[in-house]
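User: Um, any thoughts?
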Amino acid sequence: MYARNLARRAVIYRIPMPDRTYRPAWWLPGPHLPTLWGKFFRRAPAVPTRLERWETPDGDFVDLERLSAPAPGRPRLLLLHGLEGSPRSHYVRGLFAEAHARGWAMDLLVFRSCGDEPNRTRRFYHSGETTDLAFVLDRVLAESRDPTPVFLVGVSLGGNVLLKFLGERAGDLPARVAAAAAVSVPFDLERGSRHISRGFARVYERHFLRTLRRKALAKLAHFPDLIDRARLAAARTLYDFDDVVTAPVHGFADATDYYSRSSALRWLARVSLPTLLLSAEDDPFLPRAVLDEVRAVARDNPALTTEFVARGGHVGFVAGTVPWRPFYYAEWRVCDFFMSRLRQREVPRRRARATAGRVS
């Protein structure tokens, strides 16, 4: 049923319906052009969304960017964005458009301090913080008591948060949570942090440091004892920032302790929800050897489906034969994976109905 509806909407919205083979755009060679393309050149179609603010149990708040409600009974996506992401991030807008075209609902959890207004409490967000995800997921599920399936998506840092959450919860998830997908995950935070400090990747690091330092300084205006201002000013790498800010603010001994306890790699073996892991081997945010270790874990965990392509950059995955008609594979592949899970869920239901019909 979902596949037939999607085919009809493809005509209305002109959704590309490619085959399942990913062919990276020849006109974006190397790892960095696909990584930067989305931020500077992508124009995702506008879709109707609204912003909601939810008060959290600790006296703070989180914002949700929400796609206008579709017809009852349609699937719902819950998305976690990457480091310093927002509702304006190119992959967020792209996934909203993909969900809208399929007639699905979608929510984006905007991590604390990543919205248009600073959060109230001392803490920020980080790669291992899963309590806000748990809070939002519970409330999303409580909004509707029907059996509508919910899918979880995490991109980059958000993918690490998602996988850690799935590992923590193991088999303890509501039945309505049907599957998950994690894109361009920094599975090993320490090695990723060291890797992004080398070569051209330092351009990304400087970009992140600029906004992170600005947020930390703003926090100091309200909480003067939060961190060491001199050490913050001296921080030159993401590792430095995590050692000075992220770790002490959130109860870790240092950056190494934070990375060790939060990295998704250590939680993968416990994941029991069907989950797609989509990454590129040339991701400039992560050493390629880490993906080999993820493959080894996934071989022993049937819940994990790995798709590690040779080229794609970090949250790039741009395909298409000409630059003026690109195809963004990641969001299509994520939703295609969820479609396959929907079809698999329908099989036992059809069999049950057929059996009931024969008995009656």
Remarks:
- The CA atoms of residues 196 and 285 lie 5 Å apart.
- DSSP finds twelve helices and ten strands in the chain.
- The two ends are 25 Å apart (CA to CA).
